[in-house]
Amino acid sequence: xxxxxxxxxxxxxxxxxxxxxxxxxxxxxxxxxxxxxxxxxxxxxxxxxxxxxxxxxxxxxxxxxxxxxxxxxxxxxxxxxxxxxxxxxxxxxxxxxxxxxxxxxxxxxxxxxxxxxxxxxxxxxxxxxxxxxxxxxxxxxxxxxxxxxx
Length: 150
Prior knowledge:
Strand content: 25-35%
CATH architecture: 2-Layer Sandwich
Number of domains: 1
Number of strands: 5
Oligomer: single chain
Order of helices and strands: HHHEHEEHHEE
Radius of gyration: 15 Å
Low-confidence stretches: none
Structural class: alpha+beta
């Protein structure tokens, strides 16, 4: 029963992270990555650069959700113990990078956005006028890059 209660609490938090509204995008990403690390055993470093003040709420939620999806892909496919999340704001553009040094994927497969997770990421970025790029090579890891004007 305790496991079920904890699962419901975690799901509720993931659906609507209060820290995103209360403390901002950088804090929400750090909090999520810390929780993700505890639950998966994958250590995630988080780096933010530039002012993240005034990021519109739909954009902040979009970047948060993309980070969640990207890290779930790391857990499912990369076979690594570490990943990196970087969010920077420069020249009116927010750039989110999620990377690992894991299994990677073949260029053909990655460019087709084969899984539903990648389709979701691409669509989320598009909805806020952003772009999505996936760079990967088998055995050399994967870099997911999202750019959103903000």
